């Protein structure tokens, strides 16, 4: 495979956490959009009695979890990367750098939503695997090519990063 | 009518009618003088006779021609010419005889005359020879004045004679005849051959006040009218075009014009900014430039480049952070670096 030295190496805790934060923001944005849409619908249905909807926390958690599961599973199943992973240049793949597949995507998304702290295992694992990775036989790798030109950013590439994995 | 002789045959030579005269004998020998006088008299008569005969022949209605003495050009002899020759020949013979008799008489009478001029026993101042000598001396002294009187008379007579003779001569027939007899081309050729034309021209130019002549010519000419007429009948565009076709204007200008100085002089006199603002449609130029440039593409490329650099930088920093955390954990757990 072609690309810089760090391509296809397992990603560390920092980039993966940042990607998760971005994905959480995406889910929150989705929830807000849902709430706004529901408000518009109720306003149009009964404008005279319109009040802003105030769902219970349970409903919010339930809807948020469902949205996150759908969002993560769809993203991984289609391209292997969510919006956060896209920004950070990560891709979720099956061990051996193969596409993850829909079943593993769904399993991985459910486990990630149910037990997000599984990501912390990345720090301890020598191959940067989270608990979900261990469970689903998946891995998260760097997968991006500097578009602004390698020469201009080569000085920033860590020398420790090698392609000997 | 007399058929005119071929023009080539009628070359005017000073020796054609009157043969080159023998040197005049200025000698004391009286017989020689008499003989020479007789020859001259007969020469005059011969010419007169020829003129008379030719005039008579020309005035005769029947076409005849005359044999000119001394000219073997095929003229037929006529009775008149033969008669003239016969008369002159007889007179010529008689003159010889008379001459011989005169010489003989002179020789015989010479001692008598000498004795009569210098008679003996007569004082020298009373001798006839002295008288004759004095008469001759007196004549020699007065001869110059008489000659002057004669020349003055001839000068006064000449205009009158010219007028009288000119009135008698029909110039309208005289000149064509003269020119018909003359081979003008050959005459001109011979004149030109003997003339030093260069010298003639030099002399003429040296004597001419060319500047004054040209001024006079120019002063007498309405130059404006002439130029107007010339310009009116000239297709200036065609003339200029023909001239320009033969000219390499660019090379001429480059060779003869100090373009740097010219441009500097022009630029210092011009308000270029004002000129451009007044004459140049800046908006049109700007529109054309903007149309020629894909500005949105440039903005897209530049912004995407900036975005790409930002994203790449964040990703690289993330990788660095990952590695830093990894090393830290390895140190805490006291294990080697991750592969």
Task: Report on the architecture of this protein.
- Chain A has 165 residues and is mainly α.
- Chain A has a two-stranded antiparallel sheet with strand order 1-2.
- Chain A has seven helices and two strands.
- The longest helix of chain A is centred in the first third of the chain and has 33 residues, at 13-45.
- Chain A has helices at 13-45, 57-78, 83-88, 102-114, 121-124, 131-136, 150-153; strands spanning 90-94, 138-142.
- Chain B is mainly alpha-helical and 339 residues long.
- Helices cover 74% and strands 0% of the residues of chain B.
- Residues 1-27, 64-68 and 70-75 of chain B have low confidence and may be disordered.
- The interface between A and B is medium-sized, with 29 and 25 residues.
Secondary structure: elements and pairs:
The complex is a heterodimer of chains A (165) and B (339).
Chain A: H1 13-45, H2 57-78, H3 83-88, E1 90-94, H4 102-114, H5 121-124, H6 131-136, E2 138-142, H7 150-153
Antiparallel strand pairs in A: 1-2
Chain B: H1 30-59, H2 79-117, H3 128-168, H4 171-181, H5 184-194, H6 197-207, H7 210-219, H8 223-232, H9 236-246, H10 249-256, H11 259-269, H12 272-279, H13 282-292, H14 295-333
Helix pairs in contact in B: 1-2
């Amino acid at each position: 495979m072609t690309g810089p030295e760090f391509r296809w190496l397992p990603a560390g805790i920092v980039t993966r956490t940042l990607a998760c934060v971005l994905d959480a923001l995406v889910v929150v944005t989705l929830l807000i959009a849902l709430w706004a849409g529901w408000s518009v619908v109720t306003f149009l249905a009964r404008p005279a009695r319109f009040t802003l909807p105030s769902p219970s926390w349970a409903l919010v958690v339930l809807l948020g979890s469902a949205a996150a599961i759908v969002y993560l599973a769809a993203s991984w199943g289609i391209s292997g990367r969510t919006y956060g992973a896209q920004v950070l240049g990560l891709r979720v793949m099956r061990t051996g750098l193969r596409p993850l597949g829909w079943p593993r995507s769904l399993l991985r998304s459910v486990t990630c939503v149910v037990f997000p702290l599984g990501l912390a295992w990345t720090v301890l694992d020598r191959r940067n695997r989270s608990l979900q990775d261990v469970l689903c036989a998946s891995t998260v790798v760097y997968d991006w090519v500097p578009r602004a030109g390698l020469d201009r950013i080569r000085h920033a590439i860590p020398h420790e990063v090698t392609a000997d994995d | 009518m007399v058929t005119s002789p071929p023009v080539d045959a009628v070359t005017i030579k000073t020796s054609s009618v009157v043969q080159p005269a023998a040197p005049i004998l200025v000698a004391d020998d009286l017989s020689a003088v008499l003989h020479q006088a007789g020859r001259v008299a007969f020469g005059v008569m011969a010419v007169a006779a020829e003129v008379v005969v030719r005039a008579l022949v020309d005035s005769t209605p029947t076409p005849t021609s005359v044999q000119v003495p001394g000219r073997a050009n095929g003229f037929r002899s006529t009775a008149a010419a033969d008669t003239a020759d016969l008369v002159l020949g007889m007179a010529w013979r008689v003159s010889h005889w008379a001459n011989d008799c005169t010489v003989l008489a002179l020789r015989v009478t010479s001692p008598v005359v000498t004795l009569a001029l210098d008679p003996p026993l007569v004082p020298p101042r009373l001798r006839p020879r002295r008288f004759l000598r004095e008469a001759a001396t007196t004549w020699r002294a007065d001869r110059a004045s008489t000659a002057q009187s004669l020349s003055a008379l001839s000068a006064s007579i000449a205009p009158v004679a010219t007028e009288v003779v000119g009135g008698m001569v029909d110039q309208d027939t005289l000149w064509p005849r003269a020119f018909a007899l003359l081979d003008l081309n050959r005459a001109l050729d011979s004149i030109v051959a003997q003339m030093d034309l260069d010298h003639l021209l030099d002399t003429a130019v040296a004597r001419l006040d060319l500047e004054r002549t040209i001024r006079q010519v120019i002063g007498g000419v309405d130059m404006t009218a002439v130029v107007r007429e010339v310009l009116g009948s000239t297709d200036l565009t065609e003339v200029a075009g023909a001239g320009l076709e033969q000219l390499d204007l660019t090379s001429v200008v480059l060779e003869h014009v100090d373009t740097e100085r010219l441009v500097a002089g022009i630029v210092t006199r011009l308000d270029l900014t004002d000129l451009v603002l007044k004459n140049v449609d800046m908006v049109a130029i700007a529109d054309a430039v903007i149309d020629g440039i894909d500005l949105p593409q440039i903005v897209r490329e530049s912004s995407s480049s900036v975005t790409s650099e930002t994203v790449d930088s964040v990703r690289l920093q993330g990788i660095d952070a990952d590695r830093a955390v990894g090393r830290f954990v390895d140190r805490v757990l006291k294990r080697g670096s991750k592969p």
